[in-house]
Amino acid sequence: MAIVDQPPARGPSGIGVRAVRTLGELLITAGVVVLLFVVYELYVTNLSSAGKQADATATLDQDWADDGRQLHPELIDGKAFAKLHIPAFGADYHFTIQEGTSAAALEIGPGHYRGTALPGEPGNFAVAGHRVGKGAPFNDLDLLASCDAIVIETQTDFFVYRVLPRPDEIGGWAAGKGTRPQCAHVSTLRTNAADGGPYGGTSGREVVGAGEVSVISPVPHQPADLLPKVQQVALLTLTTCHPRFSDRQRLIVHAMLTNQYAKTPGSIYQQLLQSIGET
Questions:
Q1: By three-state DSSP, how is residue 140 classified?
Q2: How many CA atoms lie within 13 A of 77 on its CB side?
Q3: 217 domain residue, yes or no
Q4: Domain that holds residue 185
Q5: Helix/strand/coil (H, E, C) string of 151-186?
Q6: Is 60 helix (H, G, I), strand (E, B) or coil?
Q7: Distance CA 189, CA 240 (A)
Q8: CA dist., res. 161 & res. 237, Å (int)
Q9: What is the tally of structural domains in the chain?
């Protein structure tokens, strides 16, 4: 039987091939752009912020050495006035705290929400910080557990705050984790069984929407004038973006003041760690 030659199969049209090729090139380009952005956010901004943080620390140390003991330093936007230490993140974890939460201030390090309490005062000393890039001071904020210490160092004092119980710990706190030595001065802040009182909505950790500014109120989630200052608990609130690589929500950590240590000549943070049992 004779073999009849078959015409060659027709390949995809030239237009289709070009379209697929163009799309592939665009996807590759987009991937490279995203990769470069990630490198920039994770490494370049971190290096830049590290330099700014080092300069801010050196300037603050010099100011403290030159100005004597100032109980209430002048707060200037973008200028450091205190230091933040978190023993659970290592003895060498420390950042200066700048006044204000502008982009420029947060590129240096954590920033104090203007108008909130100062360290050690009744009310809510509230501090924001980046979780990714720009030094990422609050990258591991989600790892803090109830009763973990957060130390704020000023020119005159060390203020020791400890993270409040989480919502699922509150019910059995008094007979459970609340009996541990490091939790000796940590309260649930509940004043009645019905609704918990003015601090009924305050716990060690919560996730809120990006626009939920009431978490930094003197009494979190309550009107600013709910309680007179003398009746307010001395709180510390740390805020950062949540989840990582997103600003859709905010991760919030609330802590309460448990101890205050006046600084003496030559006193250093490492000595404080021994005093509070964090070594």
A1: coil
A2: 6
A3: yes
A4: 38-275
A5: EEECCCEEEEEEECCCHHHCCCCCCCHHHCHHHCCC
A6: helix
A7: 23
A8: 10
A9: 1
The SS3 assignment for 42 reads helix
With respect to residue 33, please indicate whether it lies within any of the assigned structural domains: no
Give the pLDDT confidence of 233-257 residue by residue, as tens digits.
Answer: 999 999 999 999 899 999 999 999 9
CA angle 66, 71, 72 (to 5 degrees): 95
The string of DSSP letters for 90-125 reads: -TT-EEEEEES-SHHHHHHS-EEPTTSPPTTSSEEE
Q: Domain with 230 in it: what CATH number?
A: 2.40.260.10
Closest CA to 255 of 230, 276, 237, 231: 237
Whether 18 is in a domain gets the answer no
**Residues in contact with 247: Cβ distance below 8 Å, sequence separation at least 6, in sequence order:** 210, 241
Distances, alpha carbon 13 to alpha carbons 6, 10, 25, 90, 251, in Å: 20, 8, 19, 63, 53
pTM (predicted TM-score)? 0.85
What pLDDT, on a 0 to 100 scale, did the predictor assign at position 12? 55
Q: For residue 56, give both structure tokens.
A: 């801010």
Residue 150 included in any domain: yes
